[in-house]
Amino acid sequence: MTVIARNPATALRRVDVRRRVMASVLILAFVLAVGAAVAPIIASGAAADSNPSAESQPAHKHKHRYLPTPAPTPMALPPEIKARVPAYTPGPIPFHDGEQLIYQASWVGIPAAQARLEFHKEQKQDQQRWLGEIWIETNPFADLFYKMRDYMKESMAADTLHTSGVYLVQHEKSRLNYYDVAIDRPAQMVTMTKKNHKGTTSKEYIASDPWGPISGAMMALTQNFEPGKTYAFDVFSGSQRYVFAFVVDKREKIHLTLGDFDAWRIVPDVWYVSDGELRSEASGTVLWISADERHLPLRIQSQAYIGYVRADLIAIDGKGGVESAQN
Asked: Dihedral sign, CA of 98, 94, 239, 155?
């Protein structure tokens, strides 16, 4: 703690390189236990995309550059990964119309950010849909080292939870990126578009069962949890594609400021990431979900370069929802 107190900015910069994968791993885990999208901000720092295009790499004035072979477009999952990802049928939806969950994120016990997750039902033509939204904001202390103002929304069919796409605004430090993820299930095609002051770039993927971070999390929360069970999802978030796995470890009691809870301990993993470089970074993360019929997201905790980051549920609109999950 002496080193942190002496130079906190240096300590945060040293964990910068972990952010991109931690943010993406935890976004789904966080909507599964909504602290996830927040937790990486402390252990983070937005790095550039891991695989910048060859055009963005300046060639040496007097040397010939051998450019890497471009990835196939559209990109498909490796067959051995695709075979391990099942299709799911939704169970009871754990959230109600207008529900709001608020999470407080901290780094080694120091409050640093807050996230708000809201769910609303909406009528689109003849179809009823869910709209999920997440706001993530660092507090004034964390703003001194790493300012974040992120927003994500996703629209999902009420009966299947299938999503039509994801919209993400990533405003971190001086960077401002807009992401549109268009998901066409009938065509089994996903197009991810990134816009910023440098222009527009797009990537295409082949996907038979694609999910966004919010829709994938909602589907996971509707499943029956049992020790030893593993759930896997093909998720598209921002500029990357991930195959996330969640292993149900055991039931245990945890304490929050809201009270004591009987919870499922869940261990997330990453089986695949589209840039092929970040899998080993997704480790040391655990999340807890209430062991009642609601599967209320309670806490997520992840190792950082120094100490740990943690996001806890601190408020929910509907006291009965909290009490139902308590002992």
From this structure: negative
